[in-house]
Amino acid sequence: MHDSQGLEPLVSGIPPIRSRRGPRRRRPAKLHADKGYDDDHLRRWLGGRGIRHRTTRKGIESSQRLGRHRWVVERTVSWLAGCRRLHRRYERKAEHFPAFVGIAATLIGYRRLAVPLTA
Predict the structure, then answer these.
(1) Left if phi > 0, otherwise alpha if psi is -120 to 50, otherwise beta: which for 113?
(2) Which positions ≥6 away from 103 have C-beta within 8 Å?
(3) How far is CA 115 from each of CA 11, 29, 78, 80, 97, rounded to the nearest angstrom?
(4) Which stretch of 28-32, 86-90, 94-98 has the lowest confidence by average pLDDT?
(5) Which of 21-25, 40-44, 73-77, 78-82 is predicted most confidently?
(6) Which residue, 51, 56, 67, 100, has fewest beta-carbon neighbours within 10 Å?
(7) Where are the domains of the chain?
(8) Whole-angstrom Cα distance, residue 95 to residue 49?
(9) Is the pTM higher than 0.70?
(10) Is the per-residue pLDDT at 88 higher than 80?
(11) Integer Cα distance of 39 and 73 in angstroms
(12) 52-55 and 30-33 strand pairing
């Protein structure tokens, strides 16, 4: 399945967000996406849900401005892909996979806190 086909179930499946004051937010305020999500149907769907979108348009805009937002996600996915068990699914049982994702995320977070970046 192409990523753009999974956008609606992904956004619909976001649980309510706790806030300190006021009612719980039921959806994100805005969404940043690259040219793979440039579809009139998705733009209308997001607008109907009250979600502002920042999607680069094919042939018109450059994705350079979105790079600073996307880099965090791409970096995290590459960190997870560095774990051998997650790169290819070696597990026979599907319920083991989320457990290994949790372990990998914990190790990544620990390494990030234990070794400060020099930049």
Answers:
(1) alpha
(2) none
(3) 34, 33, 18, 18, 27
(4) 86-90
(5) 40-44
(6) 67
(7) 3-55, 67-114
(8) 32
(9) no
(10) no
(11) 21
(12) parallel
